[in-house]
Every structure is written in structure tokens, then in C-alpha cells.
Amino acid sequence: MENLAATTLTGPLLMLLAYVGLGWLAAQTLRVDPRPIATLLVYLVAPLTFFRALMAGGPTPDYLLLTLILFTVSSAIALSVRALAGRHFGAQEGALLAFSAGTGNTGYFGLPVAMIVLPPEGVTLYLFCILGITLYEFTVGFYVSARGQFSVRQSLTKIARLPLVYAFLAALLLSHLNVALPTALMTSLDVFPATYTLLGMMIIGMTLSQVTLAAWDPRLVAACVVLRYGLWPLATLAIVLLLQHVVALSPALAMAILLLGVVPMAANVVVVAMELGIAPQKGALAVLITTLMAPFLIPLYLRAMLNLAGLA
Predict the structure, then answer these.
(1) pTM (2 decimals)?
(2) Which of 118, 83, 122, 77 is nearest to 101 (CA)?
């Protein structure tokens, strides 16, 4: 619990916000185009980051069950929101809201926080949890987003081109065959988690540098905030309470799951929106607002949720 002190978390959280500012500065002064960086994240950095994590963590049935649970929860939330959003938002805004509803900034933002508040075994559990959410982003979530702009066939074609799914399957196959990658290769992959966080946060700032007042959509922002800081904390708390009645839930796993519910909106909302051309500026504004709220809410939320789960 000592790692939940606001003073402990403030520095790392502010550093993540500084990466957003760095991205804005790069776009303003150097005229950096965020679109090729979004493509780089989707097709190279993210797949290699999670391939490395899977190979280092050693997938087990229990770990993969966590991945399946979070994938299912994320997909169910996104599909439910997509059905409701179609009645109140345009096609692109509804697709953006549905995608964002199923995910959070569990990687770029949440992983550095997890490394502060969790022991090493908890970080491994957290990685397999966010793997489920990331798989949602690049399968069901990508499809839901693409359907705001493309046909069913075009959407499925775009999913089939995403390498993260193949990186996941390759890691599972290699682990099943007990194939160990050379140490030099694993060491060379160590740069990708930090690159994943840095570029993922910077791309928010780069996109914000292009934002105009026309991109401000108060209804969309309000809906995103309610889903991120209302629905998700309740969902993760419900998962923890349910698991406590089914298995002997370790404090590290409980904290890993609860952390998923208190991170801000996913930076991948901007990445995917940019890749598909679905209102990335609106998405960037919503991501920024929830990210600015995070340093104040994360310590409070985690303490309250741990108390409600009887883990404080």
C-alpha cells in the first residue's frame, strides 16, 4: 500500500504527461507527422513488445485464462456500447466511442505504473491481463472501429494484416514447443517496451497539435469519461469480487486487475483512429482530458477499490 501514496505516483505520472507535451512540441517545431508513427506502433512496435513479454513470461494455462477473461470483458463492453452509440452519435464518433469503451491506456500509461505498485510476479500477471485487452484492440476493437468507415470485407481484411495476432500465436507456438530464443535476441528486444510507452504517449501530443475548436465534442468527451472512470472501475472491481469467491486470489493479481480499471483512455484510440481515418482529433482531446485526470484519480480509486475488495 505504501506504493499507492500520491507522492510516489506523481512523478512517473507527470513524466508520462511530459511525453505528451514532447509530442506536441515535436509536431509544432519539427513538423513531425504522427501518421507514420501510428503505423509504426501498430505494425512493428506493439507486436514486438508483446512477443517479447510472452516469451519472457512463459505462457501458462492460468496466465492465458486471464488473457481470455479480459479479452471477453473488453469485447462485451465495446459491442454493447457500439449498439447504444449508434442511436446517439454519428458513424465515426460511434465507432470511436465503442473502440475506446473496450480498452484503456493499460500499456503506454499503465505498465510504468504497474512496475511501481506491483511486485515482479504482479507485473507478469498484469502483462497477461493487458494482452487480452490489446488483442481486443487489434481484433474486435479494430473491426468495430473500421466498420465506422469501411465495409465488413474491408474491415476483416485490415484485421488480417495486423501482425500482433500473429506475434501472439507465434509466441504461444514457440512456448508450447519449449523453444527458447537466444539471449542476444531477447536482449535486443528490451528496447521495445520503453519505445512503446514513449511513442504511444507522444502521438497524443502530436495529434493535439493539429486540433481545432471544431474537434471539441462535449457529448463524446463526457461519454468517454463516464465509460473510462465510471464503468471500468466497477467492472474490474466486480471481476475481483467474483474471483475471490471462486479461487484464492492473490493481492498482486487483485491489484493488477484493479489497475486496469483506473488508467486513462487508451492512446491507441488515437493510433487506430489515425490509421483508419475516424475522427482522430476528437479522440485525442478525449484521451488528453482523461490522462490529465489520472494523476489525481489513480491513487484515490485504487485505495477505495482495495478497501471495497477487503484487500487494504
Answers:
(1) 0.83
(2) 77
